[in-house]
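Cast an eye over this sequence plus tokens and explain the fold to me:
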Amino acid sequence: MNNFHDKVIYQAYPKSYKDTTGNGIGDLNGVREKLPYLADLGIDMIWLNPFYPSPQNDNGYDVADYTDIDPMFGSWDDFDALVEEADKHGISLMLDMVLNHTSTEHTWFQKALAGEKKYQDFYILREAQEDGSLPTNWESKFGGKAWSKFGETDKYYLHLYDVTQADLDWRNPEVREELFKVVNFWLEKGVKGFRFDVINVIGKDEELKDAEDGVGKAHYTDTPIVHDFIREMNEKSYGQYEDIITVGEMSSTTVEHGVKYSNPDRKEMSMIFSFHHLKVDYKDGDKWTTMPFDFNELKTILDEWQSGMAEGGGWNALFWNNHDQPRANNRFGDPENYPVETATMLAQTIHLLRGTPYVYQGEEIGMTNPNYATIDDYVDVETHNAYKSLLENGLSEDDAIEIIKEKSRDNGRTPMQWDDSEHAGFTTGEPWLKVPENYKTINTTTSETSKKIRDYYKKLIQLRKDMPIIQEGDYEAVELDHPSIFAYVRTYKGEKLLVLNHFYAEEDSIDIPKELLDMESSYLIGNSGDRELTSTFKMGPFETAAFLLN
């Protein structure tokens, strides 16, 4: 049995990690150069975002060839050297598999356009409805309709995402066979993990119909056949190995499905990413708004997923940050006045939960949103579309840019801040995305603040390796309705771990339940020095503390 419960995974966004050629774009050799840094942090696996040939309309998630490397990121020799050297450091690689859709530049789509019936059956092609309207009224997740004209024919192809990302027809066994070959290709290259992009939307309904809500999610999200497809993929690829770790990115999923995807008895995946906890600062569910995060909702969601997944034998991927999210310290803390406290409190909150923690590049040194001054500094296509839409809806440029500053995906994509030299040591050239101005005070080399945060991450990562209670313990919330503190207990073989996380700058206190106070307590880790557990436990700004109870 592959036990990944003691592992911590680090996400490196190759384009922004380290550039070794001076062209302003990070590359595979940059990741290799920084292996000693990652080994020192203590992580076990690096998840790399796509580096396959791609027109880059969606930053590489529009794949034009699944089994090659885009020269922008390096060569096969570079890849092989990275695998080999990472292995020497006890680190393995997790690759991103984008198997719901291909780029319209992929050979399969090009052959389909050229009239080859076999490849037309690889995609979801439909004729217009009798009244001439599109095959269905579904919306694309990137805005606009989900259907576009298929070449010179009278058919349309489905694209749930960008118009250049054509959805594959997983109901076609030949398609599945080809995709399983892709997974096996990378397994043979020494890859030990896979992150499957938007994998729970691969099972579109057999008969495609208009959606009552005009959006269509119910017709393609978490349908029963998705589980069949994933089980088949497991059986024909990674499931044949003992030591492979898989994680599914799940769009709008539920705890019930999360359990099915990740309970080991079902032989689907190791764990899943769910995103509900990162939508608690969306006003009326709309991302492109600003509002203080809803702390009560945040805790309720974290609690629901912790309890529900444990109950059903599922497994969570734990994270605050990734390449699609603004920086968590800006969203849930105060990195300006309390940079160390904010970063360490957020880290401890998830690292001591039940699940596998993911560290996104730069969070371990306290990197923040860049707060670019103008829309011209942003590169992300979704951001530019949103800005345009906000202006069309009557917002002033100033108000629109304030929202962009908080919500843009580019917030998480800025170059890694290595030192205080020009462009933060990321490149000797002109970076593809502007480096935030605070790189002189936040970087891996000269910043005392960053060093404190990174040292704390190292401790948390080591504790997970050392302590079965963190790897395997049950979870239970404590005082879930507390207005400013998220507290929980992990239990394992008679031992308890009490974790207290204070999410605000004003001091507050929490009453510790008597049954916990009656146990013998010892302080384990926290961000404000040694503490003793008292019946009314006072907490400072963004304080976190954990106690072992026997």
